[in-house]
Amino acid sequence: MEFQTQNINQYFQWIISLILEHLPSVILALIIFVIGLILAKVVRSTTQKLLFKTKLDKAVTMFLMQILHIFLVIFVILIALSEMGISTTPLTAAITALIVGIGMSLRTSANIVVSGIMIVSTRPFRIGEFVDMGGTTGTVEAINFVFCTLRTTDGREVKVPNSLVTSRIITNFSNNEFRRNDFIIGIGYSSDLKKAKLLLQELVTNNANIIQEGDKAPIIRVDALADSSVNLLVRYWTKRADFQETKWALTEQTKLCFDDNDIEIPFPQRSLHIENIPAQLSIDKK
Question: TM spans, by residue (predicted)?
Answer without folding.
Answer: 12-39, 60-81, 93-120
